[in-house]
Write a structure and sequence with these properties.
By secondary structure, the chain is mostly helical. It is built from seven helices and three strands. It folds into three domains: about 5-85; about 95-140, no CATH class; about 145-215. The chain binds zinc ion.
């Protein structure tokens, strides 16, 4: 390995790697501020050897930065993950030959790199689902326009609940899984929800929305 100490680490290298691969909207983040935060993040570890710093240590530092927005937090966490992959000399690569069937017409779904989605091959069907940046695996099940909109609505209801610290992500997911009648240890993933599940989850989320204060 070229670098042996954290002090020799170049945050720009991490940023470049993140730019290439991040599914987090890094374009919405003030990059200079992000670079400054990265400096702050690695500062306590400057004198340590690379292999003595774990992603978990960085996560702890990130969690302590309470003044940041959710996107900024996600962005920093992603950098920490990129760092840990880079530290181990490992980068996730696109998985080849993913077989994904359309739940509406059973056609094969092909990867479209322009839109970063898996799209149904059937021209009369508009089902699609985004994929993960690193390994290119689908985020969930393909959805038609109506279901995509429903999932988006769920997502926009989740954001204020987390941003206002009404519930932690773990607690929120547990509660929503309970509403869906799913075991608490299963994975809550908006991209796997069907239309009925979206309705159930939306109803639960509406009750959790922060109270709008009158101006
Ligand atoms: Zn289809």
């Amino acid at each position: 390995m070229k670098y042996r100490k954290i002090s020799q680490l170049d945050p720009v290298m991490l940023l470049t790697a993140q730019f290439r691969r991040s599914h987090i909207p890094i374009c919405q983040v003030d990059l200079d501020a992000h670079a400054a935060r990265l400096d702050l993040l690695f500062k306590p570890h400057k004198r340590k050897y690379l292999n003595r710093v774990s992603a978990n240590m960085l996560f702890k530092n990130i969690n302590a930065m309470t003044e940041l927005s959710t996107t900024e937090h996600d962005c920093l966490r992603y950098t920490a993950l990129v760092f840990s992959e880079w530290q181990r000399g490992y980068f996730s690569k696109p998985v080849q030959c993913v077989k994904l069937a359309c739940p509406y017409c059973q056609s094969h779904c092909s990867i479209d790199h322009d839109t970063q989605m898996y799209c149904c091959d059937n021209k009369d069907c508009d089902a699609s689902v985004p994929y993960w940046q690193g390994d290119h695996l689908p985020l969930g099940t393909p959805a038609n326009a109506e279901l995509r909109q429903q999932r988006q609505a769920v997502e926009s209801l989740v954001v204020p609940v987390l941003a206002n610290n009404i519930l932690t992500k773990v607690d929120l997911h547990k509660r929503l899984l309970k509403c869906l009648g799913m075991p608490p240890k299963s994975l809550f993933n908006i991209y796997n929800l069907d239309s009925t599940q979206c309705d159930i989850v939306s109803n639960a989320l509406i009750k959790l929305q922060p109270v709008q204060r009158a101006m």
